[in-house]
Amino acid sequence: MGAETLLKNGEARVQLDPKVPLILGLQPAALIDHVARVDGSLFDQIPGERGGSIPVAMEELEHILSELKRHVLASADDSSPMKTMAGGSVANTIRGLSSGFGVNCGMIGAYGDDEQGQLFACNMNTSGVNVSRLRKKKGPTAQCVCLVDAFGNRTMRPCLATAVKVQGDELTKGDFSGSKWLVMRFGAFNLEVIQAAIRIAKQQGVSVSLDLASFECVTFVRWCGILEYLFNSYWSQGILISALPMRMRQQNC
């Protein structure tokens, strides 16, 4: 059981099972981030706008990684110019809540049977995150190059097309039972999983936080129509809480 209702002094109080994560993060595809501080000239050699996030093929990812040596900026503390770690906005949020604030958190998703997949699971587990809901699958783990310019602005280029991920029909009530919050990130390739997760969350009484991601992601999928469906289906029921990217706000989208 995830929670039990107890009576104390005539009042009903909920007692949480310490083994059940209070907050769950659903990231269908585990992701490894390659983070590096680079000079501005590199952005002229890669597709997409600076500061955004668009998917790239494995060949493009490898090309960007190979170019980093010529464009990387020296670190003030002499640390490694590039850091490789478990990534993705959901994983970063969950890891931060767990290691930084001691919140009982867990991850739902899938990782590949490769070095990157093992690194993701190990990194999250070391940060105190419950990884029992992660599925190991045959295939590659997603990767992303995170380019940070001299002003601290980030440009993301993820490679997701061939990566393993959890499917909507693989999610179970047991994944959500007893938890209070579910954190997700919006994405076109995740839409089926998002819908399935919100549906089960509603059944289990779990509140949902949905991050609308970058302005490029939202624009690419013609976000108005898709989000209208989500709002009409779930907003009125208090299930969906969204975060609108700042650039979309400025454009009054």
UniProtKB/TrEMBL annotation:
<dbReference type="Pfam" id="PF00294">
    <property type="entry name" value="PfkB"/>
</dbReference>
<comment type="similarity">
    <text>Belongs to the carbohydrate kinase PfkB family.</text>
</comment>
<protein>
    <recommendedName>
        <fullName>Carbohydrate kinase PfkB domain-containing protein</fullName>
    </recommendedName>
</protein>
<dbReference type="InterPro" id="IPR011611">
    <property type="entry name" value="PfkB_dom"/>
</dbReference>
<dbReference type="GO" id="GO:0016301">
    <property type="term" value="F:kinase activity"/>
</dbReference>
<dbReference type="InterPro" id="IPR029056">
    <property type="entry name" value="Ribokinase-like"/>
</dbReference>
<keyword id="KW-0418">Kinase</keyword>
<feature type="domain" description="Carbohydrate kinase PfkB">
    <location>
        <begin position="82"/>
        <end position="210"/>
    </location>
</feature>
<keyword id="KW-0808">Transferase</keyword>
<dbReference type="InterPro" id="IPR052700">
    <property type="entry name" value="Carb_kinase_PfkB-like"/>
</dbReference>
